[in-house]
Amino acid sequence: MSKSPDAFRTISEVAVWLDVQAHVLRFWESRFSQVKPVKRAGGRRYYRPNDMRLLGGIKKLLHEDGITIKGVQRILREKGVAYVAALSPSLDDVAEADTAAEENVVVPFTSKPVQTGEQVKMDLGESEPAIGTVAPAARAKAASPEPETRPEAARPDGQDKAPQKRGIATQAWTRMDFDDQLLKQIAPMAKDLRAILERMENRTAG
Known about the structure:
It is a single chain. This protein is mainly alpha-helical. It is 50% helix and 3% strand. A hairpin with a 5-residue loop joins strand 2 and strand 3. It is rod-shaped and about 170 Å long. The chain starts with 8 loop residues before the first strand and ends with a helix.
């Protein structure tokens, strides 16, 4: 909705109406003491209709008629504010500018955010097991019985236990591989054992 022509205007609105920069209006205010906008808290300027007409006349003298700032100041002193304000364009143009600005407003498009609960799940052919059900792999594992542990077969008499001595004979009994050092240690015992066996055979033969 456009403002009334009698409404107060901000410096930005007046700048758009006169097609000048806001700093130009502040410069004119410093050069022409007759321009006295209402200043509110924070230094914000609000221009009344008479202020706007005066600025409109000043712009015409400066930009269209090519008069210098000193020349406009002399006109204001000699002919008065009402003469310069009468040169201003109509304030009805301000309302038309407001209407055109409202019609040209582009409303930015904002996309609706996708909520987490609305995300679509992709079906890849694999479904998660329902609560309270057992997965196929778990069922297969439960169905297959564990292999029974059978007791180790007893060795023949005299071979089910290792010798009680913890010497060379024990090492020879428990080890499956023999290095050179162990063989050298076993060789004398084997030689004595062979002699004992030969004597027993001789006694049996006699």
